[in-house]
Amino acid sequence: MKVLIATDKPFAKVAVDGIRKEIEAAGFELALLEKYTEKQQLLDAVADADAIIIRSDLIDAEVIAAAKQLKIVVRAGAGYDNVDLTAATAAGVCVMNTPGQNSNAVAELVFGLLVFAVRNFYNGNSGTELMGKKLGIHAYGNVGRNVARIAKGFGMELYAFDAFCPAEVIEKDGVKAVSSAEELYTVSDIVSLHIPATAETKKSINATLLSRMPKGAVLVNTARKEVIDEQELLDFMIVRPDFKYVTDITPGNDVEMKEKVDGRYFTTPKKMGAQTSEANINAGIAAAKQIVDFLKNGNARFKVN
Ligand code: 3PG
Q: Most buried among 7, 169, 223, 270, by the most CB within 10 A?
């Protein structure tokens, strides 16, 4: 059996070594495709793969069709919007994620971005503190929970909205559960996004919602760019010169954002949320173990299709 790691943005070497150990201990072979620049390289590499470990790499119908022996794809991470689930299911390919494995890394970056934003991007001007500010956590999954845990250390007041997580679960963490996104944005000085990119959430963060936020508000996005209505965000920021946007996912209109709302907008050059040795080890090794358990024992616990 051949397991391919296909990562445009490579794992730390220590994580690749750990994955190799798991795969080889199971008697399987490991192949590595990193930092590829052409889709053809991916199409060639998947041709004889029985299993693939990916990150944000695009697994579309063409890749599935090229992977004639493919039985399982594991997205080492949380969001699997980069995998064509319909094509995978039609081809009898199991798709899994590794929920929770990189969530602390992403949550820590939220605060890296936030301190940078409220201190005016370290331009020397007097900024503000996080202590006492109202933080709205938009979706209370693995990352949202870690954000809540860290925010308590900063002395923030916590609110969360999650359409699927019961209020009791949120409130037992000392976080006030609100009953709609509208309410969350109205009450929060800062909103941290943790919603997945789905048909329902795409472009859902729009000017109507953002205009509910108070003066001096900050939106921090470590989730997906697709959930933002980018044109509306830009237009809104032009009419709201107090508003800041910090993101770990470069928007489609990055050049225009830099031109028109300079000094209130920042994006990491490449998505860095899960880019720590610890997260790479956790998610990568979990992916390897899930593949071995699936191929040897048929365990499909983290199947998403
Ligand atoms: C995830 O969904 O797990 C995160 O967005 C991390 O993505 P990455 O593996 O591409 O860094």
A: 223
The per-residue pLDDT for range 158-176, each reduced to its tens digit, is 999 999 999 999 999 999 9
Q: Which pLDDT does position 222 carry in this prediction?
A: 99
Phi, psi of 126 (to 5 degrees): -65, 130
What structural domains does the chain harbor?
2-101+276-297 (3.40.50.720), 103-267 (3.40.50.720)
> Does ligand 1 lie within 6 Å of residue 271's CB atom?
yes
Q: Is the CB of 101 under 6 A from ligand 1?
A: no
Span from the CA of 74 to the centroid of ligand 1 (angstroms): 12
Token digits of residue 226: 């697709």
pTM score, whole prediction: 0.97
Q: Read off the pLDDT band of 228 (50, 70, 90).
A: very high
Q: Specify the residue with its C-alpha closest to ligand 1, atom 9.
A: 55
For a mutational test of ligand 1's pocket, the pick from 11, 55, 57, 194, i.e. the residue with the most ligand atoms closer than 8 A to its C-beta, is 55
Residue with tokens 């399987």: 28
The answer to whether the CB of 181 falls within 8 A of the CB of 209 is yes
pLDDT band at 272 (very low <50, low <70, confident <90, very high): very high
pLDDT-derived band at 83, boundaries 50, 70, 90? very high
Three-state DSSP at 51 gives strand
CA–centroid distance, 214 to ligand 1, in Å, is 30
